[in-house]
Amino acid sequence: MLKKIINYIILGVTPHLPLSTVKKFAGRYVAGEKINEALRVIAELNANGYSATIDILGEHTISKVEAELITSRYLRIYEEIARQNLDCNISIKPSHIGGDVGDNFLNSQLDILLKKAKDTNNFLRIDMESSDSTDTTIQQYLRLRKVYNGVGTVFQAYLYRTEEDLSELSKNGSFNFRLCKGIYKEPERIAIQSRRNINSNFLKLLQLAFENNIYVGIATHDLLLLEESYKLIEKYQVQKDRFEFQVLYGVPMSGWLEKHKANGYKVRVYVPFGEDWYAYSIRRLKENPNIAGYVLKDFFRR
User: Counting Cβ atoms within 10 Å, is residue 142 exposed (0-12), middle (13-18) or buried (19+)?
Assistant: First the structure.
């Protein structure tokens, strides 16, 4: 209990620390600020038997010029993945490449990225953001899927609507999605609030995916959910090429990554990088305050 209190005190202090101190913590969760730094991390992950997906940190870009710059950086990443023969795809947030600018502009940016994904024989994941953009994201996904099968999206277990969304999409055959709990603050009328009930719905949605032969990225760090996911895989005798486990770069997994690999299950690591590392790192710190204690103890020892 005392340790928990101390960690939360550290959590409150951390946003007021010098950037150099926070950056020491950030290094655990962020693969650098530059493309080449992130690609080196991915090459190392591949060498250790892990797949990857890469994300440029940032969201809610309101400048067309800036959004086009982000898109061009993703194009370069696709080219480098192909040139270096990396096992890696790309995850993008619609608001980062112009979703807040307008639908037509977002369409143009997604079309550019999809063409590059197709040309490099790669995959494009459209991340799900807050519930305000859920309908738009699904529509964009369906539009792009008509052009190229190598595209997927994300669904959040805490939204009540997700079961219906998945059931509707499954009517058109198999598809590819990442299943996560959801991180945005949403009102009670549209989102489950308790961890227990979110977990229950997560497993219900995972079962739906298995029953309908939908490819699913099981994205969770919840050890209880991982145990239950294993039970569902065994129950439905799910083939290993119909799912993968996904984790955030740097998050401790208590031996589960090694367990996944020992079972021959694919593991994909979500690798974020970029200049907007600070806000992302503070979010990770709030989710796992124990890490704050480890990092700051090491800092003061030095």
Answer: middle
- Active-site amino acid positions: 127, 178
Mean pLDDT, range 183-208, rounded to an integer: 95
Query: What six digits make up the tokens of 221?
Result: 């760090």
Joined tokens for residue 274: 């970029």
**Token output for 242:** 């119909």
- pLDDT at site 140: 96
Q: What residue has token string 């007021």? A: 16
DSSP 182-210: --S---TTTB--SHHHHHHHHHHHHHHHH
Residue 302 has pLDDT above 50, yes or no: no
Mean pLDDT of 171-198: 93
Give the whole-angstrom CA distance, residue 30 versus residue 8.
22
The residues, any chain, with a CB within 8 Å of residue 219's CB and separated by 6 or more, are: 154, 178, 179, 180, 245, 246, 247, 270
pTM of the prediction?
0.89
